[in-house]
Specification:
binds flavin mononucleotide; NADH Oxidase; 174 residues; single chain
Length: 174
Amino acid sequence: MNTIEAIKTRRSCRAFKPDMPPKELIEQVCEAGTYAPTGMNRQSPIIIAVTNRELRDKLSAANAKIMGKDESFDPFYGAPAVLIVLADKDIRTEVYDGSLVMGTLMLAAHELGLGSCWIHRAKEEFETEEYKTVLRTLGISGEYEGIGHVALGYPAVTPPPASDRKQSYVTFVE
Ligand SMILES: Cc1cc2nc3c(=O)[nH]c(=O)nc-3n(C[C@H](O)[C@H](O)[C@H](O)COP(=O)(O)O)c2cc1C
């Protein structure tokens, strides 16, 4: 699969099989994410790869609560792995850097045969003392803003094709 093909065929996956992908595959996805460009190459983002069921379920419940949904709703659509992207608040390109990491992770996942979906509300999650403590527990110091989660796993269904692109997307000035 070439890059353009990967970009055009990646789709958000919203139904996952429960099977955990091998760690090597998840590592490959994460490594690709670390090669995303960042402002002045400051590499402001960090990636936390969660395959621990307890933390994954805790994140799911917190995310559902922020959405105003019942905690039994799983915003990660059953994905066994969740990649959390956060970025250093002291670096002014943090949101751009982190967003590009998110996109890169999803494209890499697609190329490797995994399904993925950007799941939002990481910002709200990591503003809570509970999740700041989770970072400290993991030995991560400093102030980080939650950018997003990548729900990751094997797709349980084939996602629908991409919607049409809006006419006004690109303007050429020749
Ligand atoms: C900033 C951002 C936040 C998103 N948040 C969610 C989310 O919380 N839940 C979800 O199911 N999809 C989420 N998505 C996925 C979009 O809905 C999806 O990318 C869009 O509908 C286009 O579909 P595609 O990814 O299949 O091309 C998010 C995407 C972005 C870029």
